[in-house]
User: Fold this.
Amino acid sequence: MSPRPGNRQTASISLAHRLGNALIAPYRALLAADGRLDASAAGRAGSDASLLIALSFAVAETQEIFTAIWLGIHESLLSGLSLLVHRLSDAVFADLAYLLTAGLVLTLLAGRRDIGRDLDLACVAYVPVVTVRWTSELFFRALSWLPSTELSSGLLFLGYGWGAAILVLAWHVAQSRPLPAKDAPNTIDTTGAIDGADDIGADNIGAESAHRIAATAATRGWYLRWTGISPLIVAAALILANGIYTGRNFAALKPVTTGDMAPALSLPRIHTATAPAATTPTKRGAKQSAKQGTKQDDRHRAPSPAVADERIKLIELRGRVVVIDFWASWCQPCLASMPALESLHRQYSRRGLTLISVNLDSAENAQRIFAEAGYTMPLVADDGTTSNAYKVSTIPHVVVVDGHGRIRHVHRGAISHDELVENITPLLPRGPRSIARE
Assistant:
């Protein structure tokens, strides 16, 4: 016996059908997300969006996930978790902002004051955004083609434009949602349901419309299912491809850690009012620097007027202990650790320590911060290549290099003055022999 038109005893809508509806039948997907076709589907859109966000993170940060696992095994569980949380917050911020903004706008425009259901509607509009993102990435990956900035921007606009079109439909669905009983006007509706049919529960969608929607869903069941499965297959293919690439090249991609030889560093000094004279290279370092040549200097010269022509080269500091601090002007933990680093620089520079402060974002901001605080430790501007070579993924990031150019300690996150003293003291040269000083 077929159920009555007003009865919601319908089969639960699967994930594949929900995603397929969002892509090719968005109005039906929105009604289902709003609980007006199938009560069991209400709230599922949020779960679907959570899954898609998790897959987006896995697609975009496959290498970082491998790195976090490696750190958790070889260094500490805290290091691995810290990297994972940091990358997760960066990767999902834009998507979460999109969903929250869209949900709030729907609530304000519809005036129904049901943010939970409006967020579910916004989650439906998120499906085409990630579908376009993943599909285009897989397409370009298959062709080994790097798209132009204009093409990338166009595809981004296509995804969000598609989502915006669904949000317009979502506004209509939210606006037609019945008001709660306490907010409904005290009048008797004698006009009947839309299209002259009975209401489905308290909804404004007629039984005839509901039957028509259900019939369409039945005839297109296989089509909807495969359409919904397609983005999941694309995401799985991208994760697999990224995983294979990372696995094959992990020796080069893995984090720089204790025992590794320090990557080359040749960075331009940033002008500071209290900057010391240029570091005098040790004899050993000067010979090795001459062998390297100066091609890297010209290739990565920073254009900022705050940056000087003079460069600090790690290879010229052989024989000295070097502490390299990667930081940015917006990073509060980085700024909080600077007094300890400056104290370390003043206390141990005569004993064979060189501290290099590598700014990652703005030479002008770094120059201002150093001038205001009166810091005298050497300040240089990152060229992008150096921070990548040291696998800097979170900041503060401090690396301690011994006199032979080998990494002895890596600190991901804030570090105290006492910890650094404990790290460098055993590495400093002993005895009265002369050491080149800044």
Observations:
- The chain has two domains: 15-180+190-253, 266-427.
